[in-house]
Amino acid sequence: MIAEKMKGLVKNNSVIRQMFEEGKKMAQEFGAENVYDFSLGNPNVSAPEAVRENAIRLLKEESSSDIHGYMANAGYPEVRKAIADNLNLRFNTNFDEGNIMMATGAAGALNCALKAIINPGDEVVTFAPYFVEYKNYVANFDGVLVVTEPDKNTFQPQLSDFEKNVGPKTKAVIINNPNNPTGVIYTEDTIKKIADILYKKQEEYGSQIYIISDEPYRELVYTDTKVPFITNYYKNTLVGYSFSKSMSLPGERIGYLVVPSECDDFPDLFNAVVIANRVMGFVNAPSLFQKVIAGCLEEKADIAYYAKNRDLIYDSLVSYGYNCVKPEGAFYLWIKSPVENEKEFVAECKKEHILVVPGSSFSYGGYVRLSYCVSYETIKNSLPGFKKVAERYGLK
Ligand SMILES: Cc1ncc(COP(=O)(O)O)c(C=O)c1O
After folding, report:
1. Residue to probe by mutation, ligand 1, list 133, 134, 138, 334, most atoms within 8 Å of CB
2. Is pLDDT above 70 for 107?
3. CB neighbours of 33 closer than 8 A, spacing ≥ 6?
C-alpha cells in the first residue's frame, strides 16, 4: 500500500503533465502540424552553441574522475566561485563560493531551502497564481502553504492581503519573479514593500522569516523593467536559480542556491542546505553540467525568439477580443477565460486542437495559461482556431 501522503498526489497527478501526454496522442491522431500544444514550459529554443562546445571539450580533455566523480555536496568550488563572481558583477553583491550551493535545478534548490528551515506546521506564504509544485514542495516538509491574492488588474501581489497572511508561524515567503504563470515582473517598489512588511513582522513576532526567491526566468525579460535581486533589499533571502529556461537545459537538472552571509544563522543555514542536498538523495548537482555552465555564464538562449512569439500571440489574441495580461517576462501568456469556468474554455480550445492549461492548476480559476516557448509556426497556425473560439463566445 502506498503512503498516505502520496495518495492525494497520485489521484491529482499534474494536469499539465497529463495534457502533455494528451498532446502527444492528438499529434498521432491528427498529425503533429495540426496540434497546437501550449501546455508545457519546455524551451524550444536551442541551448547556446557554447554549451555543446564546452561539453565536448570537457569530455575530450578532462579525466573521467574529474568530470564524473563525486565532489563536495555543495558542488565544485571553482564552479561556485565563478557563479559568485558573475552575480557580484551583475548585482553589486559580495558573494564567494561559500555562499553558493550547486543544485539540481530550481526544484532541487527550493526543496533544499525548505528542508533546511521548515518545521511541521510552519507557514510558507506565496502569491497567487503560483507554480503548482510549491504546494507539494512545502507539504514535503509538513509545512502549510498560505496564498496571497493578486491585484486583479496588474497581477502584482495585493500587499494588504500579504500583510494579513504573515503571522507568527510564517517561516518563509516564496517569490517567483518573473512569474509563472502570468509573465508579470514584480517591480522594485513591490519588492521594497514586501521587505518592509517582513522586517516589521520579524520584529513584531521576534521571528526569522526567509524569502525564497525562485528565479528560473530571471533572464527572460522583454521590457526595460528591472527584476530586483532580492538579497539587495532583504537580508534573509535565499535565491534559487536554474539554467533550465535561460539556457534551455531543463533535462540536465542544473541550478544553484545562493545563501548570503548576512542571513540569520549563517553558516548553520548554509550547512543545512548542503546537508539537505545530501540526505534528500540529490547528493550533488550533475558533475559534467556544473563544469559546462561555469564556462558559459555569459550565455543565454535566443530571447529575441520568445519576444517575437510573445508579440504575435499577444497582439493577435487581443485583436480577437481576448483579455490578456501583457507578459513582461518568462514565456507564458495569462488569458482571461471568456466564461467563468475556464475548463469550458480549455475544452473549446481543444476542439480546435489547441492545448492550454486551466488557471485552477495554478490555484487561480477563471484564467488559462499559454506557454509560447513553441515554434513561431505553431503560434501562427493556431491563430484561426483562437479566432473561431473568440467568435463562438462573441468576443468581438
Ligand atoms: C516557477 C518555477 N519554479 C521552478 C521550476 C522548476 O525548474 P527546474 O526545471 O529548474 O527545476 C519551474 C519549472 O517550470 C518553474 O516554472
Report:
1. 133
2. yes
3. 381
Q: Which residue has the cell 550565455?
A: 299
End position of a domain, from candidates 294, 317, 333: 294
Q: Looking at residue 14, what is its pLDDT?
A: 67
> How far is it, in rounded angstroms, from Cα 275 to Cα 277?
5
CATH number of residue 54's parent domain: 3.40.640.10
Enumerate the β-bridge partners of residue 235.
none
Provide residues with CB under 6 Å of ligand 1: 41, 105-107, 131, 176, 180, 214, 216, 242, 244, 250, 255
How far does residue 138's CA lie from ligand 1's centre (Å)? 15
Measuring from atom 2 of ligand 1, which residue has the nearest CA?
131
Cis preceding-peptide flag for 150 (omega within 30 of 0) = no
Ligand 1 centroid to 110 CA: how many Å?
9
pLDDT of residue 302: 94
| H helix runs in the chain, sequence order | 4-11, 15-30, 49-61, 64-68, 77-91, 105-117, 133-140, 159-165, 188-205, 268-279, 287-294, 303-319, 342-351, 376-392
Spacing, Cα 325 to ligand 1 middle (Å): 21
Closest ligand 1 atom, CA of 104?
11
324 and 193: one domain?
no
Q: What's the pLDDT tens digit per position in 121-150?
A: 999 999 999 999 999 999 999 999 999 999
By residue range, what is the domain housing residue 182? 49-294
- Pocket probe for ligand 1: among 245, 256, 361, 372, the residue whose CB has the most ligand atoms within 8 Å is 245
Instruction: Note the pLDDT tens digit of each residue in 240-281.
Output: 999 999 999 999 999 999 999 999 999 999 999 999 999 999
Give nearest CA residue, ligand 1 atom 14: 41
